[in-house]
Design goal:
Number of domains: 2
Strand order of the largest sheet: 3-2-1-4-5
Main location: membrane
Strand content: 5-15%
Largest sheet: 5 strands, parallel
CATH superfamily of the largest domain: Amino acid/polyamine transporter I
CATH architecture of the largest domain: Up-down Bundle
Distance between the termini: 52 Å
Shape: elongated
Helix content: 55-70%
CATH class of the largest domain: Mainly Alpha
CATH topology of the largest domain: Amino acid/polyamine transporter I
Organism: Streptomyces cinnamoneus (Streptoverticillium cinnamoneum)
Number of helices: 26
Pfam families: AA_permease_2
Radius of gyration: 31 Å
Number of strands: 5
Membrane topology: Multi-pass membrane protein
Keywords: Membrane, Transmembrane, Transmembrane helix
Length: 632
């Protein structure tokens, strides 16, 4: 870690963090911990807040398998269960692996933290970039898929799907800005309804010998190929890779371990296991029903809708499943809002993103990360026009890269640690790395022309951005000599320059503050070149002499109507005359009682501050004078 990061860790958590020196009384610390814990997750809340992506993937994971295998006709569809079992085996490997990741890296970060420790800085940045892209795409895909399901039920809304997508994004963002625990409570009910609906479809369907209804698929063209007689290995590999889209979101719990209540590691591990068990049961159960009902994919109707129709009939039970699917797909974006801000905070702590992303709000929310995620997702929604088919080909590539790197990193972890049973654990992770690596290559190759080239291009660009930010912080650290013992402070002559334009209580307050700060105070006023400006300057000079505050007023003639340039030239002249002087420009400003009243201000203070900051080394002090109902 660089000197800049080391220095900030020594001082707390960076800008705005409480100083480490002195500490706090034990009772205050305990009270703060208790207050913070209220805004953290229980295991049940974690399952609701961080598993929505994975849970919702059962709505399109089995369908992805069926659509690929349909190219081989009925022979291909007969392989649905074996392919699903292979995916469930991979899911078991991933859950076991991420359970170990949670224990080994309790500060969160998941694949990024593993790669950083065991595979080097560059590899960790590739992992972080892949996860960032996957999280952002998850928001866009989840929202558009949910809205697509909604517009399928209500076709009249189809033309407004982009605005509906943006409205859903604003809603989810607003809930997350209230705190992750609050958002988790809001999502417990829809998650439970969806899981309960899918499990009901599975259980009821397993007791049926034939579909009770096929009304949902009636009138829709079949996507089944009728002339195939064999199933090739490449087709099975494509089906496996396509079905692995159901595994997106498995890593989210490991990325957000700090969001859980104490003991965070144990709660996060329980959440990971529960997520894997539910997801695996639903995938295998739906696959069994596909074979039991000899389901054929049709255009315009999802596989899950057909299974609900076949198991429950075309009545209220069918619509409950559909509504639950719509809601959960829309809310699955919450996985990204729970995981990405934590990952961004880790990157910011390591100087690969601006430090503002490491700051937390009162409710333990990485507010800037949440807002950044929402902004980029909104751009993706606008780019796609709210069309899910434009975004799906880009989805899941990043998470496979993260899976593979994490598995390889954990192999190295076990080899270095050599704890009890390390060979078996390393073998498990190695097997998982091979499976996810093959899946990443197959998905990228098969979908390259459908848009995955954009991800292949975006990954190195994002890594380059991380490196650029890191180098910038390194240069700042060198200039500030962070991590080194600085020279002792010394007193120097201080000159305070106060720009004024008229006499008022604000002028008096500014000069009072100035004489308290500096050894020498000078008031300056910019004289405009026109006749009106000269009259205003004469009036101010006359009033100043009558007031006689004990501070000289210097008139700065302006060749043009520029306000900042004359003050900048004067500050430079002061600095040139006395290089040892410390020049401070104190800018008095009015702080109105209401936010909307800021529109009434002339913004002169901001103009002067910008000019002085850009062209001089003077210290800028902006004095805010509050004007409220109670101001006397």
């Amino acid at each position: 870690m660089s000197k800049l990061a080391d220095s900030e860790h020594a001082a707390g958590t960076g800008v705005g963090a409480p100083a480490a020196a002195g500490g706090e009384p034990p009772d205050t610390g305990a009270a703060r911990t208790t207050a913070e814990d209220r805004h953290r997750l229980t295991a049940t809340q974690g399952l609701a807040a961080l598993s929505l992506d994975a849970m919702a993937s059962v709505a399109y994971g089995p369908e992805s398998i069926v659509l690929v295998l349909a190219a081989a006709g009925a022979h291909g569809l007969g392989c649905t269960l074996p392919v699903t079992l292979a995916i469930a085996a991979l899911l078991t490997v991933l859950v076991a692996s991420y359970r170990q990741v949670i224990a080994a890296f309790p500060d969160g970060g998941g694949s990024y933290a593993v790669a950083k420790r065991h595979l080097g800085r560059r590899t960790s940045l590739v992992t972080a970039a892949s996860l960032v892209l996957d999280y952002v795409l998850n928001v866009a895909v989840s929202v558009t898929a949910g809205v697509a399901a909604l517009t399928s039920a209500f076709p009249s809304l189809y033309g407004h799907r982009l605005w509906i997508c943006l409205a859903v994004l604003v809603l989810v963002t607003g809930v997350n800005l209230r705190g992750i625990a609050e958002s988790a409570k809001a999502f417990i009910v829809p998650t439970a309804v969806f899981v309960g609906s899918v499990l009901t479809v599975i259980v009821v369907g397993l007791f049926r010998d034939a579909p009770v209804s096929t009304q949902a698929a009636e009138g829709h063209a079949s996507a089944l190929a009728g002339d195939a007689t064999a199933v090739g290995a490449l087709l099975l590999l494509k089906a496996f890779a396509a079905g692995c889209s159901a595994l997106t979101g498995v890593e989210a719990v490991a990325n957000a371990v700090p969001s859980f209540r104490a003991p965070a590691t144990r709660r996060a591990q329980r959440t990971e296991v529960a997520l894997g068990a539910l997801l695996g049961a639903m995938l295998i159960g739906l696959s069994l029903l596909i074979g039991r009902f000899h389901l054929q994919p049709v255009e315009g109707v999802t596989v899950l809708a057909q299974l609900a129709d076949a198991s429950l009939g075309h009545h209220w039970g069918f619509y409950v499943v559909q509504c639950a699917t719509v809601v959960l797909l829309a809310l699955a974006a919450n996985t990204s809002f729970g995981g990405l801000p934590v990952l961004m905070s880790l990157l910011a702590r390591d100087n690969y993103l601006p430090h503002v992303f490491a700051l937390k709000a009162d409710r333990q929310v990485h507010r800037h990360g949440v807002l950044a995620l929402a902004a980029v997702s909104a751009l993706l929604l606008v780019f796609s026009g709210g069309d899910v088919n434009t975004l799906v080909p880009l989805f899941a590539i990043g998470v496979f890269v993260g899976f593979t790197v994490c598995q390889v990193g954990m192999v190295r972890h076990w080899r270095r640690e050599r704890s009890a049973g390390w060979r078996g654990k390393a073998l498990l992770n190695g097997f998982g790395a091979v499976l996810t690596g093959v899946s990443a290559v197959v998905v990228t190759a098969t979908k390259f022309t459908e848009g995955t080239w954009l991800i292949v291009f975006a990954l190195p660009v994002l890594v380059l951005a991380f490196e650029t930010v890191h180098r910038a912080y390194g240069r700042i650290g060198e200039r500030l000599e962070l991590g080194r013992v600085p020279e002792a402070p010394r007193r120097c002559h201080s000159v305070v320059v106060v720009p004024v334009s008229s006499l008022s209580r604000l002028t008096s307050k500014a000069l009072t503050a100035a004489v308290s700060l500096g050894d020498e105070v000078v008031a300056v006023t910019v004289t405009q070149p026109d006749q009106e400006g000269r009259r205003a300057a004469e009036s101010l000079r006359r009033d100043w002499e009558l007031w006689n505050p004990g501070v000289d007023l210097v008139e700065l003639p302006a060749a043009t109507r520029a306000l900042g340039r004359p003050i900048v030239d004067y500050v430079r002249e002061l600095s040139g005359r006395h290089p040892d002087n410390r020049v401070t420009v104190l800018i008095p400003e009015v702080e109105p009682a209401h936010v909307w009243q800021r529109l009434l201000q002339n913004q002169r203070g901001a103009v002067v501050a910008h000019a002085v900051r850009r062209d001089t080394d003077a210290v800028i002090c902006r004095l805010r004078f509050r004007v409220g109902a109670g101001t006397a």
